[in-house]
Amino acid sequence: DYSDVHLIHMNRGRYDFHTLNNEILKTYDIAKQLSGASANLILIEAKANGISVIQELQRTTHLRVKGVTPMSDKVSRVVNDFLPFISKLKIPMHANIYNYWLEDYIRECKLFRADNTHAHDDMIDSTSQALAFLCRKTLNYDSIKEAFANVKNLL
Q1: In which element (H, E) is residue 50 found?
Q2: SS (H, E, C) 115-130
Q3: 3, 35, 82, 120: which has the highest count of C-beta atoms within 10 A?
């Protein structure tokens, strides 16, 4: 069981295939620099171009990448996987050049609504999937059994 989960970096955007691969590698490097450790596993949602991204990263890098398929809607994931473990989540509140995402992250959390009237939910959704994986380890996520040391963006 994890007593704390450190969210050290986050990246949100809409990217074409090649740019997305580059952003994942850049985010991985930033997280490694900030934490001093490498992620043991990168989780990527296996939908849309996520499947191709997973295949490309597995083919061209040394990174351990796994596809995940959430079994419920985003609102259910937030209620069941984000809120119960929010006290375990540690977020860097100090200003530095890598924390440009923090204001958007806090705004997204504050504006999230169960009726889906919020504009964005990618950051909170990826956080809920990471927290569920780390804190529960009982998800129906394509037989993922490995644990990883730090939360990197979970894109």
Answers
A1: helix 50-60
A2: CCCCCCCHHHHHHHHH
A3: 82
How far out from the chain centre does Cα 36 lie?
Answer: 18
Residue 147: both structure tokens together: 């644990």
Among 10, 40, 18, residue whose Cα is nearest residue 154: 10
Q: pLDDT of 15-66, one tens digit each?
A: 999 999 999 999 899 888 888 888 778 888 888 889 999 999 999 999 999 8
Q: Using an 8 Å Cβ cutoff, are 92 and 99 in contact?
A: yes
Which residues are 43's β-sheet partners?
66
Q: 42 in helix, strand or coil?
A: strand
Amino acid code (one letter) for 74: K
- Check: CB of residue 12 under 8 Å from CB of residue 101: yes
Between the two ends of the chain, the Cα-to-Cα distance in Å is 23
